[in-house]
Each structure stands twice: as structure tokens, then as C-alpha cells.
Amino acid sequence: xxxxxxxxxxxxxxxxxxxxxxxxLMHGKMGIxxxxxxxxxxxxxxxxxDYAGELIDEIYDDINTSTPVDFENxxxxxxxxxxxxxxxxxxxxxTNEVLEEFDxxxxxxxxxxxxxxxxxxxxxxGIGFYFLKRIQNTQSSDEKLQTLINKQGLIQxxxxxxxxxxxxxxxxxxxxxxxxxxxxNKSIEGQENCQLQIGGFDITSDYSVLLWLLTxxxxxxxxxxxxERLITDLLKPLSIKKVVTMVEANKLLLLLGLTKLKSTNxxxxxxxxxxxxxxxxxxxxxxxxxxxxxxNLPLKVKNGLAGVYSLCKQLCEMTNEDVFNRILCLLSSxxxxxxxxxxxxxxxxxxxxxxxxxxFGLLEGFAGIYILT
Length: 373
Prior knowledge:
This protein is an all-alpha fold.
């Protein structure tokens, strides 16, 4: 049975989603549509599925020549969301037809306007995850033009990453691991086309996202020799010295990527200090420090409790380690604190009336918190 709190979140989204101008995955209608498809499956209520479908229709009506291409607010995220819904059985569609224009526009834009940063939201990784999601469709084959376009996009992306990922840049990418201060994005000296995200816990942090993307590319046999070299280069600066000063939530984030990599049995993990770092992370979780961090984290996914909760759930499924179940229990006690929830639900009235998308979306709002916790 849904709690009053959950009903309030659902009703808030029902009342406001259609008025949001943002149609994207992370903060807008695409992400909220995914929320309602999940909610319909969980509750068995058709009304939520119907509403999710209406949001999809509104998204397609609002796409125009000025719609951006990025993953956060644009075509790459919207297309990823449509493919996610099809692959998980929420909607029935041939995405080679539905997303043909997306494929062509994103590929053309990527070839002629390489993103200026590495990250997920507005950079190379976001475009990469779109192309990757498309070829993960079971209907994809090299006999289909759209599959070849998306694979070519990934090959081009690997080439760009190879030119960017010098040892110095990877060292900078790892700064978020050992630096818990909140700093803005910055450019790397001598790499004017490469911007890196540095700061405290953030589930979209560049290093972890890049490690996950490269691991999935390796699993799909995309440019394997070059991808494995990039993974090796990415792991080389890792050491216990590098990770010992991390905030605990960042240890979990890094551990998720390393666990994914470990499961693929990539040979490069034997060439670097992989096992010692992995063992240190598994055994070195400090519960007192975690509890101190959780007190100060917001509820949202991007840099908050819902994001850490999602990490731990995935680690539980991938490792069966009891440590992650213990952390989930600890997280639940913080997520369920009434004062924290009421603060979220009772947003500043002007934000709600202005239909502020960051109140409602997947990455920083109600939809993501509800789905992931």
C-alpha cells in the first residue's frame, strides 16, 4: 500500500508534469514518463501508464530544430529513454524506425561538433551511452543501417577519448575521488577542448561514468583492443593512496565501476593495482563516516541519498556482500526521516508555481527519488 507521502509525490507530479517546459531525460518530461511507467507496473493501475504515454506524445510534439542534442536535456537523453522503455517492455515499438531521425541527427552533430567535455550530462559519455543503448537492443544487427551508424558513432567516440585521455588528464579525472570540496568544472591546461568535473559526491562524476561506459563497450566488443588500452590507462593512477582520503559515498561509486569491470574479467585488471584497491574499498567502508555524510546529503539522486541508495542496491545484486545490505539499512533510516521528506515536499511555493523542473525530474527531483528508493 502506498503511503500518504508517496501519494503526495505522485499527485504533485500528476498535477505539474504537463506544465514543465523541459522535455529531457534528467529534469523533464522524459524522466517523469519513465517514472509513471514504473509506477503503473508496480501498482497495476492503467491510469499511470496512460499518463506516461501522454507525456511521450507531448515530448514528440515539442521537439524542434532548436532542441539540444545532449543527454541531460536533449535528444540523446530522450532517445535513450525511449530505448530504455522498449527494452524493458513498457512500450512496444521498432526503435530503428522511431529513433531513426535521432540516430542520424545525433551522429551528424557528433561528427561535426564534438562535445567540449567528457561527462555524462553534456559531454562525450552522454552521447556514448545513447549509441550504446541503441545497439543493446536485441533487434540490432550489423545488417541494419541504424546499427552500423550507432557503432560508427561509438568507434569515433573511442578515437576522441584516446586523443584526450593523457595520463595528466586521467590524474585530474581522479581528483573528485580524493577531493571532497565542491568546485566548479574546470579545463585542463593544454587540453582546451576537454573540461572535467571536480567536486564531492556526484553520481554523474566523470571518472566513474567513463569507467562504466568503457566497460560496457568492451562487453559489446566495440573496438576492443583500443577500449582495453583506455581502461588500462584509466586504472593506472589508481592506488590505495589515491582513494584513502575519499568521502565514503565516493568509495561506493568507484567500487560500483570496479565491480562491473571485475565481472567482465578484462585482462588489464591484472596489469595494475586493481585487486589491492578493490579489496581495500570492500573492507574499508567506515560506517561512522558514512553516517556523518548521510546527515548532510539531500534526498536527490545526483549528489544525495537516493543516488547512494541506488549504488548500494546495484552492489548488493552484483556481489552479494553483506556490507552493502547494512549500508542500505542505514540509508533507509535517513531517507525515511519525516523532517527531511517534509522539507522536500514543502518546496518553496514560488518554485512549484514556476514549475521548476529540478523539483520534479529524475536526477534531482521527486521522480528519481521515488523510483530509486
